[in-house]
Design a protein that fits this description.
alpha+beta, five-stranded mixed sheet, 5 strands, about 35% strand, Gcn5-rel_NAT, GNAT_YJDJ, Acyl_CoA_acyltransferase, N-acetyltransferase, transferase
Length: about 90
């Protein structure tokens, strides 16, 4: 079941809190690209698909805002390969 993901554009991050533990995705905007720099899910809440929910939220935000996505973190890159429905967003 997807978690609720919050977006903080001023800090360029997406976050969620599960069982009192925060997970995050950090990005940078570079021109027309949203560059996913880091996806972090603490071990205490790992294995629940939380990182996937964070990356999906970032891709959906990019789609709505008209950005291309460059998944610079290894998790986001692997996620993009597993989700070809987002391939048109890749930079």
């Amino acid at each position: 079941m997807p978690v609720t993901v919050n977006h903080d554009p001023a800090q360029q991050r997406f976050t969620t809190v599960v069982d009192g533990v925060e997970a995050e995705l950090e990005y940078q905007l570079r021109g027309d690209q949203l560059v996913i720099a880091h996806t972090g899910v603490p071990e205490a809440i790992g294995g629940r698909g939380i990182a996937s929910d964070l990356v999906r939220a970032a891709f959906e935000y990019a789609r709505q805002a008209g950005y291309k996505v460059r998944p610079a973190c290894s998790y986001a890159a692997a996620w993009a390969e597993r989700h070809p429905e987002y391939s048109q967003l890749l930079a």
